[in-house]
Design a protein that fits this description.
The complex is a heterodimer of chains A (1017) and B (478). Chain A has 1017 residues and is of the alpha+beta class. Chain B has helices at 5-12, 15-23, 28-34, 37-40, 76-80, 131-134, 153-162, 172-180, 238-259, 262-285, 292-298, 307-319, 338-362, 436-446, and strands spanning 56-63, 116-119, 124-127, 140-147, 190-195, 218-219, 324-330, 369-374, 378-386, 392-400, 404-409, 417-419, 421-422, 429-431, 434-435, 456-458, 461-463. The chains are: A alpha+beta (1017), B alpha/beta (478).
Chain lengths: 1017, 478
């Protein structure tokens, strides 16, 4: 279409000439979408900028004004967007402007081409409440804005949600948990006019409130319990997480909340809590892989701090300006590095411990958390004691050193060709609980006689001579009384196997089992490893067996974790647990000890000899040899043990630490970095804030503290808006500005700009109180509408941006888990402290790095604590959270996606954590409804899961499921037992039948999987 | 009976609106499932910019970075000057991860074990360390002039896979999954398999970054459930599971009738898909029905696990319409004893990879399947020679970002072709450099996508895999 024709087309578009053009709403989006990328702050093409009036009126290198107020003819921009000449046409690539957009430009230029500052950079002022026709709708001022917009469109709101729906929504919204049955009933009965306000106040006062709202903040703070990257070691920073929860529960004014997190350490006489708060910016990831450059790491961390500050408080994507000036928003590259300068005075955060090579560890300022005076004094006395013992140890070592050389010479001769020797231990007592008799034979073995017990445990006592013992051995001797001469007494078939599940060895007078390190055997049956003998696990199959190597003597040798030092002749108590069954018991065990460690072949003497014979030993080998030497010096060993014990006790009274920000005495110079690269410094800059935003006040110091005050200055146009908008998003599913993470010129304009400003001002003028704003929203009629969706609503406003109805959307990962635990009656209310480990599939933490921590699921109430406390390891976050859109927290995460996937179904159906919840729920249903009908029980269960009564049809569906499964479980009682066995911490009291628990498990499982259950609706 | 509210709603949407909503992950799957015939015939995505050369990708990332100089980039001059101090300009002012003093040059050993053989009709040289790969040389398309910007593993892995050296961006596989979707509704569109240690950058290198998390790589694990939470708990058999899902979905349907939220319809279809996955994934994983000849060709074992099995699984996934399969294999970081370690690693991967290429070819799948061999960077032509204790160790090679080799096969790439040339010592690029962004742009091109138009709007900006860079390397396209 030629430009003539298109111009003609414009003329016939119906567009009232008197319409006032709103630059921000109508013109800026066109320029931002089509022009700013090339004609903005960053290297403007043809020297032309269109982002400010003065540049646009002047024009670029061509000399023609791009925009000439009042003159369509002289405005180059119009010629260009209409041109059919490909060399002239603008934009050169991509879509042409639509006729409507061109007409808007014409209108705008005709009416004077006035520019306006982008709305988000203008300080919000409180607008008057709009007038509305429906007088009865509004409950809080919020509603006036919503209703006015609906009325403007000729629409109306939905009816109020039912009471039970409302309390569930408000409870989930404010504390992330559904109401209890008592809360539900109390509210149902309360007809007083302030019944709703009472509920909201009660929820705002609940400690659960901070636990819920901290989640969103910790996503922004990229809080995690590990470093990220290759090694991904754990770090202690949970005191910061607890600080956020406490601050929110205390309704700490948001300006203070900001200042303490950005610059708590710089406040005069900073308190411990204020320092903990600075953990906000000690969360960046840290790469400690070998060969990393520490300065690069540091620069990356500072970049992360600048960007996270921009996103969290300003809704600004400052990072675009790291490499070049921002293409859309008024942030230059120089200004980026001025912000950078505020954060540039912190020390390096990796450390090369050895001082050589290229290995690094995570480092950086830590602070000890406060402890009680008693703990402090105990710690001091332990430190003093440790100092004394260490001195003595040093003296002893010095003394011993004199004999070292001579010892190595002597030993070299003595160890040549010598093998380990085992000293057989004479039994003094032996009994079995399986009925067999254990007879002491002259060679020191015990021969089992009589019928082999099904699952026997032998209790044996042997005498041990004084000495320093390093290893323990059991031999399984042969005897003609056994099939093929043994060595086992299996009674179920022809083979003479044994399966020994566990061995527990104790010194007579002590009650703790001795700990073993390396364990080897001459042979083991596949899967029945000798190491399983000493692992504390009493699963029947988790033991040592020897099929098919029958008719041979076998042995297992185990090295004590610490040498067993016996100053006088003593006794050892040995328990041998055979839990496999079928009489698979060892037929003739014999025990012995050695002063050597275990080593296949020639024993540890071989190793000693090898070390001694070396012409040159490296550090590691020298240490190994010294350990052999020390073994012969009981006094030294005893002292070493004492020092080790003291160090352990000290560890127990050493307070945990948390990561904090610390300002270096000497400031670093900050330079603009060309293309964001720290190796290409350009001009020097000083700490400052972007010019487009509020002014810097002279009374502020040019450091993080000043920056924090600037962020929460009432003249800052962004902070309050960004924060209230994000909360709105949590309540309603989407912010008033739907791009919650970006308020720049590319952002989506607010659907209710006056409401956003009103809330921002209300927030600031009420002492920056989060709870005040939350109360206004929670009590609003808008929030309390029915969430029923009609086709007409979907046609008019599918995303519910104008609130034709109440919110309805899926809960977050943490909420889904917390909600399930609360429904099941399992949720623990314990707050704070180190992160917790609920069950997750085995192997997820495998091989994520060196110094690998282990994931051991908690077996205390920690298993059932709220999601906010769950360990967050960046390389492997908690698996079910990942499936429900939990981020890895490696970077500031302003908004989670809300997906709907089959993996989520599999998680809720099969994850052990949810299986436990369903079992716990089943048990709890049966306990709480004893003697009631199935129908009443189902009603009870549905009320707990959904906060409402079930319909007749719903009862029918669940009853069918219950009956079917009940039938199935009755047919085979082992099914229910194996189901229940998966939840080790769920107690099933004796009066409950496992079939019944099993059948109700299916009802509970189904209820926990409903869309309604995981939805705040 | 009145039409269902969701059906009514769908009719009110235009095709474009519908796919926008699918793109946002809102009610997407269910809507797609509930579409009438006319709508399901619509293009599956908005990013199919041109006719694709490749439909699927099997991408090998050799984690740690193999020594391309001893496998693919033959340097006789380097062999000749082995042991000489390297030229100053190769060391001074350069960022190297481990080498801290001016190193010597390190040529490939002269022995026949390490010789480079001219292979096939193309005469491309491949080391004797990869005898099986030599037999498919005429199917391979090499780029010898890859270069990157990062020289530590984790940032370089992220740079290679997400086009950005720090956390937070979507991976190539996630972009592909987002851009093209997956033709198979019973399996994830982007599957990842890992052998050995995890890559240093962790899950982020197959993550979805700021894209909705439906697009992230789903790991198929060698042990336990192949997909997390796939198996029913003890005491729940397939029949009981079906009953629970039926009850859940009946109740969800009642809720849908009452509340009308299309999201509930999606939930219903996801429960059905979860149930199907419980069958389709074990079926996929079960290679016992493959012929013995096939198993032997790969060196795979029914009921086993490991790299060879993963290669065979990759073919089975591609057959079933999984869009993007990525295999990470750890253990190529040969700072020490490269001439011991490299042959060992080669023995692990050579046979299965070559078998995969032949297998795809014989089944007519190679034309539409793009196979990629890549790593986060290459290795230095200089020796890294001392260990921490100061002993002279067996020499290895350090990280090298200036030049390295990758190759592709099938999927519309030029077979038996070599692109670009490094200098005589294998340090820098003599001709036709290919940056990581160029490579990724090329891969997207082969999949029918324009890297400049495959965008996602986040934080006010349209993001791309290639940032503001990247040129398609036309020469490697057949």
């Amino acid at each position: 279409m030629g430009s003539q024709l298109r111009l003609l087309a414009l003329l016939i578009l119906p567009f009232p000439v008197w319409a006032k053009i709103d630059f921000n709403r109508q013109i800026r989006p066109i320029l931002s979408e089509h022009c700013f990328a090339c004609h903005g702050l960053d290297e403007p093409q043809g020297g032309l900028r269109l982002d400010f009036a003065e540049f646009a009126y002047k024009g670029g290198k061509s000399g023609f004004p791009a925009v000439s107020p009042g003159s369509l003819e002289e405005s180059e921009i119009l010629h260009r967007v209409l041109s059919s000449d490909m060399d002239e046409r603008m934009p050169p690539k991509g879509d042409l402007l639509s006729p409507r957009q061109i007409e808007l430009l014409r209108q705008w230029i005709s009416s004077g081409a006035e520019y306006a500052k982008h709305w988000a950079y203008v300080v919000p002022r409180r607008p008057a409440l709009p007038r509305v026709k429906a007088r009865n709708f509004a409950k809080t001022p919020v509603d006036h804005f919503i209703l006015a917009k609906l009325e403007e469109k000729g629409w109306g709101p939905s009816e109020p949600a039912k009471k039970e729906k409302w309390i569930r929504r408000v409870s989930l919204g404010l504390i992330g948990l559904p109401p209890t049955l008592e809360e539900l009933e109390r509210f149902a009965k309360d007809d007083s006019p302030d019944a709703r306000e009472k509920v909201v106040d009660y929820l705002l006062d609940s400690p659960r409130y901070g636990e819920h709202w901290a989640r969103q903040w910790l996503d922004l703070a990229r809080y995690a319990d590990s470093n990220g990257f290759q090694a991904d070691q754990l770090r202690d920073s949970w005191a910061f997480r607890d600080w956020v929860i406490d601050a929110m529960n205390a309704d700490m004014p948001f300006d203070q909340f900001t200042i303490e997190q950005i610059a708590g350490d710089l406040l005069p006489d900073a308190t411990v809590d204020q320092k903990i708060a600075t953990g906000f910016h000690r969360t960046p990831t840290c790469n400690v892989e070998a060969g990393v450059h520490p300065e690069e790491n540091r620069v990356n961390q500072v970049v992360d701090r600048v960007n996270a500050t921009g996103t969290t408080w300003l809704g600004a994507t400052l990072e675009c300006a790291q490499c070049h000036s921002h293409k859309y928003d008024p942030f230059s590259q120089e200004e980026y590095f001025q912000m950078f300068a505020f954060f540039n005075n912190t020390p390096l955060e990796v450390e090369n411990k050895s001082g050589k090579g290229v290995s690094f560890d995570f480092w950086g300022p830590k602070m000890e958390l406060p402890q009680s005076p008693a703990e402090t004094s105990k710690r001091h006395s332990l430190l003093a004691e440790l100092k004394g013992e260490k001195e003595e140890l040093a003296n002893l070592q010095k003394e011993a050193n004199r004999n070292y050389e001579e010892w190595t010479r002597q030993k070299l001769k003595a160890t040549k060709g010598k093998k380990s020797e085992w000293r057989v231990l004479t039994p003094t007592k032996a009994v079995s609980d399986g009925g067999e008799r254990l007879r002491i034979v002259r060679d020191g073995s015990l021969l089992a006689e009589g019928k082999s017990g099904d699952k026997s445990t032998y209790q044996i006592e042997v005498s041990v001579p004084a000495g320093t013992w390093k290893s323990f051995q059991m031999e399984t001797m042969l005897h003609k009384s056994m099939k093929q001469n043994g060595p086992g007494r299996n009674t179920t078939n022809a083979n003479p196997n044994f399966v020994l599940t566990e061995m527990i060895v104790k010194v007579e007078e002590s009650s703790e089992a001795l700990d073993f390190g390396r364990v080897i055997a001459d042979f083991n049956q596949a899967g029945f490893l000798p190491g399983q003998l000493f692992d504390g696990k009493l699963d029947a199959r988790n033991g040592w067996a020897i099929a098919p190597e029958f008719g041979k003597v076998h042995w297992v040798q185990a090295e004590f974790s610490e040498p067993l030092v016996l100053s006088e002749d003593s006794k050892l108590l040995i328990a041998m647990k055979h839990l496999y069954g079928g009489g698979r018991n060892v037929g003739r065990p014999r025990f012995s000890l050695s002063t050597d460690g275990v080593r296949k072949g020639e024993g540890e003497n071989g190793r000693l000899h090898e070390l001694l014979a070396k012409a040159k030993r490296n550090d590691k080998e020298e240490r190994e040899l010294r350990a052999f030497f020390d073994l012969e010096n009981p006094k030294l060993l005893a002292l070493q043990k004492k020092v080790a014990d003291l160090e352990q006790s000290l560890k127990e009274v050493t307070p945990p630490t948390t990561l904090v920000m610390v300002e270096m005495d000497e400031k670093r110079e900050t330079h603009v970095m060309a293309r964001g690269n720290y190796l290409s410094p350009k001009q020097k800059v000083e700490a400052d804030v972007p010019e487009a935003l509020n002014d810097w006040k002279p009374e502020w110091s040019r450091n993080r503290l000043g920056l924090a005050k600037w962020l929460v200055d009432p003249e800052n146009p962004l902070t309050a808006r960004v924060i209230v908008n994000r909360w709105w998003g949590q309540f309603f599913g989407s912010g008033i500005v739907s791009t919650e993470e970006d308020f720049g010129s590319q952002s989506e304009p607010p659907t209710h700009p006056e409401l956003l400003d009103w809330l921002a001002v209300e927030f600031m003028e009420n002492g920056w109180s989060m709870k005040h704003v939350h109360k206004l929203i929670a009590l609003s009629a808008t929030y309390g509408q029915s969430s029923r969706v009609t086709t007409s609503m979907l046609e008019r406003d599918a995303d519910n941006r104008f609130f034709l109805r109440g919110p309805r959307f899926r809960m977050t990962a943490e909420m889904i888990r917390d909600n399930g635990l609360r429904i099941a009656g399992l949720l623990s209310g314990k707050m704070g402290g180190p992160p917790v480990y609920p069950p997750q599939p085995d192997g997820l933490w495998r091989q994520t790095g060196r110094n690998e921590p282990k994931y051991v699921a908690a077996r205390t109430e920690d298993r059932f604590r709220r999601g906010i406390y769950v360990i967050w390891r960046r390389a492997a976050p908690y698996a079910s959270f990942v499936n429900f859109d939990g981020p890895d927290r490696s970077a500031c995460h302003p908004k989670r996606s809300r997906t709907n996937t089959p993996l989520q179904a599999l998680t809720l159906l099969n994850d052990q954590a949810y299986v436990e919840m369903a079992l716990g729920f089943a048990v709890s249903i049966l306990e709480k409804t004893q003697g009631q009908s199935d129908r009443d029980r189902i009603t009870h269960a549905v009320r707990r899961a959904l906060s409402r009564d079930p319909s007749a049809r719903e009862i029918e569906i669940l009853t069918d499921l219950l009956n079917e499964q009940s039938e199935r479980l009755k047919s085979d009682s082992s099914i229910a037992r194996s189901l229940i066995s998966q939840a080790p911490l769920i107690e099933v009291s004796a009066h409950l039948k496992s079939d019944e628990v099993g059948a109700w498990f299916f009802v509970a499982n189904a209820l926990l999987n409903l869309d309604e259950t995981i939805t705040k609706g | 009976m009145n039409p269902h509210p969701v059906d009514q709603y769908i009719r009110t949407l235009t095709r474009r609106q519908l796919f926008q909503r699918v793109g946002l992950g809102v009610g997407g799957f269910a809507l797609a499932n509930l579409l009438n015939d006319e709508l399901s015939a619509a293009p599956k995505n908005q990013f199919a910019h041109f006719a694709p050369k490749a439909k699927n990708v099997i991408y090998f990332h050799l984690v740690g970075a193999p020594s391309h100089l001893d496998l693919f980039d033959y340097k006789p001059e380097l062999q000749k000057r082995n042991g000489e101090l390297c030229p100053k300009e190769m060391f001074e002012g350069k960022k190297l991860a481990f080498i801290r003093s001016r190193p010597t040059l390190l040529g490939t050993p002269e022995g026949s074990k390490y010789a480079f053989k001219k292979c096939g009709q193309s005469g491309i040289r491949i080391s004797e360390l990869l005898p099986n790969l030599q037999t498919v040389a005429d199917d391979l398309c090499f780029i010898r002039t890859m270069h990157t910007e990062q020289f530590n593993h984790a940032p370089a892995q992220m740079f290679m896979q997400t086009g950005f050296e720090r956390f937070g961006r979507p991976s190539l596989g996630a972009w592909t999954n987002y851009g093209l979707g997956s033709p198979n509704q019973d399996l994830p569109g982007f599957v990842v398999m890992v052998t050995g240690q995890y890559p240093g950058a962790g899950n982020s290198i197959f993550g979805s970054g700021f894209l909705p998390s439906v697009y992230q790589g789903i790991e198929f694990r060698g042990q336990g459930d192949p997909v997390l939470f796939l198996s029913n708990p003890k005491g729940v058999d397939a029949f009981a599971r079906r009953k629970v899902i039926s009850a859940v979905n009946q109740l969800n349907e009642m809720q849908l009738d009452g509340v009308g939220d299309p999201e509930i319809a999606t939930r219903i279809s996801q429960y059905e898909m979860a149930y199907r996955m419980q069958t389709s994934v074990p079926e996929l994983k079960d290679i016992s029905k493959e012929s013995q000849a096939t198993l032997d060709a790969y060196g795979a074992k029914a009921g086993g696990a490991g790299f060879a099995n993963n290669c065979l699984l990759a073919r089975r996934m591609v057959e079933r319409g999984v869009r993007f399969v990525q295999l990470f294999d750890q253990g190529w970081d040969h700072h020490n004893a490269v001439f011991d370690g490299l042959p060992k690693k080669c023995r692990e991967v050579d046979q299965p990879i070559a078998a995969l290429i032949k297998d795809l070819k014989s089944r007519g799948l190679l034309d539409e399947t793009l196979v990629v061999w890549s790593a986060e960077f290459g290795r230095t032509p200089m020796a890294q020679g001392t260990d921490g204790a100061g002993d002279k160790a067996k020499v290895g090679r350090d990280h090298h970002k200036e030049a390295f080799t990758v190759w592709m096969a099938g999927g519309g790439t030029k077979p038996g072709y070599v692109h670009g040339r490094t200098d005589d010592l294998g340090y820098g690029i003599a001709d036709a450099p290919v940056h990581v962004h160029d490579f990724n742009a090329t891969l997207l091109y082969l999949l029918g996508m324009d890297h400049e138009r495959l965008t996602y709007r986040f934080q006010g900006r349209k993001f791309r895999l290639t940032d503001v860079h990247g040129h398609v390397v036309r020469e490697v396209v057949s």
